[in-house]
Amino acid sequence: MGALSPTFQTTGVSGRGARFRRATRGRDAFWLYMVIALVLLALEIFGSGVPRQIRGYANDLAAPVLALLKEPIDAAQAGLERVAGVGDIYLENEELRDENGRLRQWREAAQRLILENERLRQILKVPQREIPPLATASVIGVGGGAFERSVLINSGTNENVAANLPVVDELGLIGRTIEVGFLTARVLLITDLNSRVPVRMERTGDVAIAEGLNEAFMRLRFLPVDGVVQVGDRVVTSGHGGLYPPDVPVALVTGIEDDFIQLTPLSKLEALDFVRVMDYRPLPPEQPSEDPAQNGGGSN
Predict the structure, then answer these.
(1) How far is the C-alpha of 193 from the C-alpha of 211, rounded, in Å?
(2) Whole-model pTM?
(3) Which of 96-100, 159-163, 270-274 has the lowest average pLDDT?
(4) Contact at 8 Å (CB) between 175 and 189?
(5) How far is CA 126 from the centre of its chain?
(6) How big is the CA angle at 247 (ends 239 and 120), to the nearest 5 degrees?
(7) Burial of 194 (0-12, 13-18, 19+ CB in 10 A)
(8) What is the C-alpha to C-alpha distance for residues 300 and 295, in angstroms, rounded to an integer?
(9) Rounded to an integer, what distance in angstroms lies between the CA atom of residue 59 and that of residue 64?
(10) Rounded-to-integer distance, Cα 156 and Cα 200, Å
């Protein structure tokens, strides 16, 4: 028993020495870091670029490590998004299936109505109301000035465009062709002073004339005395005169003051881009057949 005591004492002394050395190294590292931090802080305060350069170098050293760590994180995130997206795609597919089913029903109903309307049109001998487009053209020039409201389009006789054909855009009537060349045509806008468009009030059915004023708006004239007009009423072509097809949107009533009824065109005449020339050539009025008796054909 007495021989073992020196061993225990030696072990205890060596353990305390190791702990003392670790504590000393920790204090030394602390003061070293503190000194470095104070030096960097002083350099930053006095405007030196050394701290920024050090941060830049540190970022350069950390960039490859961050890039390597980012790849598995991105892969895991993408996998989670795909898993979550599978459920969304399934629900979306179900909604699309239901919508397709409804569209098939509407298509079948529309086809039946088209056939029914065609049969009724043939029975009643009603002319076709759908006017096919003759040419689609872009506006390449705008006629300005106080006495002209017209545009130049890049379609002419090369596309069978002729004079006095109605021209529309996606919103409604913009005018008619007046001068036609081989590659171009000039379109007189409905706001031109020389433009007169036979129109019909869509709400009441009253007919009138939409008159251009060389302004951004038009004027409604020759409305029946008992006609009732309200702001917001829509005006469409009546088809009278044979120059314009019926039921083409023209303008809205935007102002009423005494006898002056202001119309604002539905088409964006100040920002025209693409237009359509309509293939509308109404049949000439039927000529009455000659009576042979009047021409002496019934007598010998």
Answers:
(1) 7
(2) 0.54
(3) 96-100
(4) yes
(5) 36
(6) 90
(7) middle
(8) 12
(9) 9
(10) 30
Tokens at residue 184, please? 């171009």
CB atoms within 10 A of CB 151: 21
pLDDT, tens digit, 9 for 90 and up, residues 39-89? 777 776 776 666 667 766 666 676 677 677 777 877 887 777 777 777 778
Q: Which two tokens stand for residue 15?
A: 């353990």
Output the CA–CA distances (angstroms, integers) from residue 86 to 8, 83, 154, in the order listed. Answer: 69, 5, 50
Q: What interhelical angle do 50-124 and 5-45 show, nearest 10?
A: 70
- For domain 196-271, which architecture applies? Beta Barrel (2.40)
Residue where the block lists tokens 């005169």: 241
Cα(227)–Cα(204) distance, integer angstroms: 8
Going by the DSSP 8-state scheme, the letter that residue 125 receives in this structure is T
- Residue 199, SS3 per DSSP: strand
Give the residues across from 210 on adjacent strands: 197, 220
> CB of 278 within 8 A of CB of 245?
yes
Q: How far is CA 182 from the centre of its chain?
A: 33
What backbone torsions phi and psi does residue 239 show, to the nearest 5 degrees? 90, -5
Number of other residues whose CB lies within 10 A of the CB of residue 210: 26
pLDDT one-digit tens code per residue, 133-147: 899 999 998 876 667
